[in-house]
């Protein structure tokens, strides 16, 4: 019990004090609410380890699980190492190997230097186990070294030769983020321009010039909208997992400074195609326009995101397939985070034209008009490489299209990017739209040509023509600062090419290329019969947001309806207690069953209907009780008179009463007069007095052990027999002690006999 109490102290007090910031050993550490909270944090830590995108970091989200495994592994291994039971010399290695297996299950397929860790484990455990089990011979050090070397070589060699198919839980665990019902991020693109054209919606520190910032990546098209999920065949649906920290969170409020981390990946300027920097650490500050939105702006391929201030990184989900992140609870104005990122290179046009399209299988697009495929074939059908096809599509759309957001004072241009909107744009005398339509059209045209494509929504530093520009970046106190406004919102296309990965293309025409009033570019309103399916969109899909007062009222109603009842809380606490004290409950249940079994046997013997048999059974119960408690070593194959004599010698306190009980049982069995039920009741009453007097000489621990052990067993004798079988040395000591005890009893009997005569 002392060990269990100490482990609970380490689990719920010392561990949280080391793991969670600000946790100290206060008096409320073992309050029910505190224990429940820390238990939930422990379970959340295991979920975080198998759902977060590596590296998971060393913060309060991942360390509780590590602390728990290390703590209980140390207890099990040390307990096994301190035990002196023969034949269990290998037992201390079992908890260590089990912890290794659990760590592998919670880790990744590649692991972390798995071969070196396995070799280190062999190098430590094998000699220690040999020394503990007595297998090591001091004079055979050369042979021992040879065995150790062969074991290391065989282990490392087998790891190299065997195929790597490590089973990890993260590959079979689906994170709880449901993306299927998410509104298309592309549908609300014009809202930024309409409501925040000149407002600063995002500020980036230490972001290389002319670098696009990605927000949402959409891979599924259902005929109406592009979205991040909902693909018909589920091949294009990205998986969003909790983002690993890679570094501890910080509460610093300084948002204007960040350090630059070097890497081997080279970033290129979108305008010149020349190197402009290496991997870097970029700090983003959210402005008014992005407040309440969920898609987190990031650049390049992040290897860690550090949330500053009071932002909760547990609400940050990341997709490694699309390099996009989402903050489902909504970003707040002034929210700051730092992204350690590797900026991907943007190749030159000559390199793109020579690149072959990747053979990646993407989700098929539904409800695509045939005109789009025919137009794509007419534009890029003569090209020989996938890169050349993509350049041809982007160049044609950029040169042949006209630009308009369709806002007040601009040329009419319907919002939306579904099949109906794109077909109507192609049916006019000229194409008019913005990045929403041109990106959707190019992505569908690329897919019709067999190129893997996806649509990206983000912000780019634009110049006066709406093109990527390096002049937007300013140098302030030695840091590159770029401010993005609502007018910088843009949609572009990424196409996967061999050797280059996902390459961005910007098919939107210059924003200064707008139709004048004399041009009639309005598309016809007749719907083409060549559209394979999908109803038209009378109004584009937009993300509807509740007014603040309605949102607060809904939150209050939800929180009030979800308040758990008192008995729900009691059941949760009871479940935690049962789970934590599982071994204690098992021992208690076993003891209770033994107690019931002993009481049942005594009750059955007491209720035998034949008085003489009832009295004989009572005598047997007394003998078994004395043998069970090790008060008297009474043979079972002796007569009652002989057994009484042995009990009198070994238990002088009940000598007279035992003789009376033995004579009464013999008289009931062999006398001519039949014993009555009254005699049996009186006999059992006297028998209970003898049992109580005999048990009074036992220690409390011995008494409880006798009560909670089945009667046919003899606890001390059983333990001695086991020890004799397992340890010869212990057997010899026990035999010697028994012999000394026998000699002492013979001498006492001889002295008593001499005194009588």
TrEMBL record:
It comes from Bifidobacterium angulatum DSM 20098 = JCM 7096. Residues 243-274, 508-561, 725-757 are annotated as: Disordered. It holds the Pfam family Transglut_core. Coiled coil: none annotated. This is Transglutaminase-like domain-containing protein. Residues 1-19 form the signal peptide. Keywords: Membrane, Signal, Transmembrane, Transmembrane helix. Residues 520-536, 747-757 have a biased composition (Polar residues). Residues 256-267 have a biased composition (Low complexity). PANTHER family: PROTEIN-GLUTAMINE GAMMA-GLUTAMYLTRANSFERASE. InterPro entries: Bact_TGase-like, Papain-like_cys_pep_sf, Transglutaminase-like. Residues 540-561 have a biased composition (Basic and acidic residues). The chain crosses the membrane at residues 61-78, 85-106, 112-130, 142-163, 569-597. It comes from the Bacteria.
